[in-house]
Amino acid sequence: MKRLKIIEQIIIVLIVAVLIPFITIGIIISNISQQSVRNELANNTSLIAQFIGEATENYVNLSQAQLDQMAAGFNYIPNTMAKIQYFDEIESKTLLFKNLDIIEKEKIPKEKYNVLNGRLTLVSPIDFDSNYYLLAQINVNIIDKLLGKENIEGRNIYIFDYQSKKLIATNAENASNNEVVSDLILKEDSKKGLFGKRKNTPKAYYKLKNPQWLVVVDTTKKVTAKTIIKARYRIVLSLCIAAFSIIFIVGLYTYYLYINIRQLFKGITAVSKGNYDKKIHLIKRAFTPHEIVFLAKEFNYMANKINVSYKDLREKNKELEKLNEFRENLVNATSHEFRTPLTSIIGYTSRLLRQDIILDDETKTKSLQIIKEQAQRLSNMVEDLLVIPELESYSLKFNIQEIDLSNSINRAIEYLGSEEISFKSDIAADLKNVRSDDYRLEQIIINLLDNAIKYNKDNAPIEIKAQNIDGIPFVTIKNKCEKISDEIKEKLFEKFIRADSELTRTTRGTGLGLYIVKGLSKALKIDISLECDDEFIITLKFNDYVQ
Asked: What proportions of the chain, in percent to the nearest 5, are helix, strand and coil?
């Protein structure tokens, strides 16, 4: 089963928890609203039909009553000219009656309410014998005047003679009376009622007794659009805005939550791959939960602890590698360098102990001298090996005192001097005394001279120069040598580093001399510098001197 991502799960939750309920609620509210508006439309349609019907009935009856009053007073007009003038004044001033005329009884229309060209003909007797009648016409297209166009806009109103089904008046531009009449179902026991097949466009009728007309009000799609559809649109729009707001807020919250969880995910992935420097940087907003902030803080603290422990472990591993390398180099150096003097000592000792040969005194003395030199050589190598741990642990103790630097140089030259080695010394008479450890200072100079002797070229004299420069005592040791590579030059003061390689090695030694010189010089406040090209030049600067 595939695990969904957080964002996918949240989308599903939003659909199930927000969209589906909102759609369901929207449908319910829309139906309820539609039902309510539909009932309101039906009531309004019925009321309009009743109002138009009653107004039309009152209008016709009032017109007939006024015509009867005019007919009753007609006999009191003295002459014909006055009667004609009376008709003209009524037509011009009342604007109600048109085509006033006197007709005989035989010419009265058979139908009492005869409508022709939108006009209704009314008659009223003007004499006691009812031989002559006053005839007048009134306008029956008064629908717009009754309510005003703005109040009946979008509704088609029809006035029918419901016996003959003839259309008397309407405000519809395209009157489709056949459709209205075909849908019309009258209730015999009801003066008014609703009819029509479409619920959203209800039709209402109202029966007039006098005249026997039928007022029909048709609700058009325009009215439906302004009421039901508009209400539905507003409901849907409101629900959409509400749903969008919820989705936006949840989305914003989810966005920050998702980004921060992704940061946690990246941090965990980085740590799992060994990147302990990775830190989680959250986007801290009002939407950032406390638990996420707490997790990020604890994760960073944990990662920092792991990183520190890892660095310590890495440093320890480097130290172990160095110790292992030191051990291997030490074993190699001691096994190689100790073998030669031990072989000489054992050989010459065995020679002196032999009983089968007689050795003269000169041979014995020479053999003992060689044994002594080789034993001293072993002692020097052991001393070098013993001083290294004390240097690295900073536990080496010094006896600091005022020392004559020229005497230390001369003793070192005397210690290493022989017929094969030539020294050329230049020691200034005013060379200042220094504050140092006499034994360790002599060890520094001896190691430097011994190193110069080992790598000296063509038996050239080794130059030693001691002088004060700007009031500070300096000692320079110079010898001829083969050219040294830059790689070896940078590492000359490290342990087990030699100027000649393993393949071209021509000198003896453990490779610890210059390393010990550097350590002792640093402890005794002596600066050491190196120059090597065709000449190997080492300079000592004594910072602790006597003024």
From this structure: 55, 20, 30
For residues 416 and 373, the answer to whether their CB atoms sit within 8 Å is no
> Which pTM value belongs to this model?
0.46
User: In the chain, what are the domain boundaries?
Assistant: 6-219, 226-310, 397-542
How far, CA to CA in Å, does 515 sit from each of 246, 353, 441, 502?
A: 74, 40, 14, 18
Which residues touch 404 (CB under 8 Å, ≥6 apart)? 433
pLDDT (tens digit per residue) in 124-144: 888 766 688 888 888 887 776
Backbone phi, then psi, for 482, in 5-degree steps?
Answer: -70, 160
Q: What is the pLDDT of residue 466?
A: 94
CATH 1.10.150.20 fits 397-542, yes or no: no
The answer to whether residues 124 and 70 touch, using CB atoms and an 8 Å cutoff, is yes
Burial of 67 (0-12, 13-18, 19+ CB in 10 A): buried
**Distance (Å, whole) CA 212 – CA 178:** 19
Query: In this structure, are residues 70 and 134 in contact, taking their beta carbons and an 8 Å threshold?
Result: yes
Tell me what percent of the residues of the chain surpass a pLDDT of 70.
87
What residue has token string 């075909």? Answer: 182
Closest to 350 (Cα-Cα) out of 359, 360, 361: 359
What's the chain's Rg over C-alpha atoms? 65
* Type of residue found at 384: D
Structure tokens belonging to residue 529: 């510098």
Amino acid at 157: I
Cβ(266)–Cβ(260) below 8 Å: no
Number of C-beta neighbours around residue 491 at 10 A: 14
Q: Which amino acid is at 533?
A: D
Note whether 521 and 396 are within 8 A (CB): no
Cα(279)–Cα(211) distance, integer angstroms? 95
Summarised one tens digit per residue, pLDDT across range 168-227 is: 888 777 655 566 666 676 666 678 888 777 777 788 888 888 888 888 888 877 777 777
CA–CA separation, 120 vs 169, rounded Å?
10
- Cα dihedral: 236, 242, 246, 247 (round 10): 30
CA distance 182 to 195: 11
Q: Judge whether 367 and 348 are in contact, CB under 8 Å.
A: yes
Asked whether the beta carbons of 168 and 160 are under 8 A apart, the reply is yes
What is the C-alpha to C-alpha distance for residues 246 and 436, in angstroms, rounded to an integer? 83
Cα 113 to chain centroid distance, Å, stands at: 83
Supply the mean pLDDT for the chain. Answer: 79
CA 447-451-455 angle, 5° bins:
170
State the Cα–Cα distance between residues 167 and 160, nearest whole angstrom.
Answer: 5
pLDDT of residue 506: 45
Cβ 424 vs Cβ 461: under 8 Å: yes
Q: How many CA atoms lie within 13 A of 533 on its CB side?
A: 0
Q: Are 252 and 16 in contact (CB under 8 A)?
A: no
Nearest to 196 by CA among 166, 151, 158: 158
**For residue 4, which amino acid is it?**
L
Structure-token pair, residue 40? 């309101």
Question: Tokens representing 69?
Answer: 């009053």
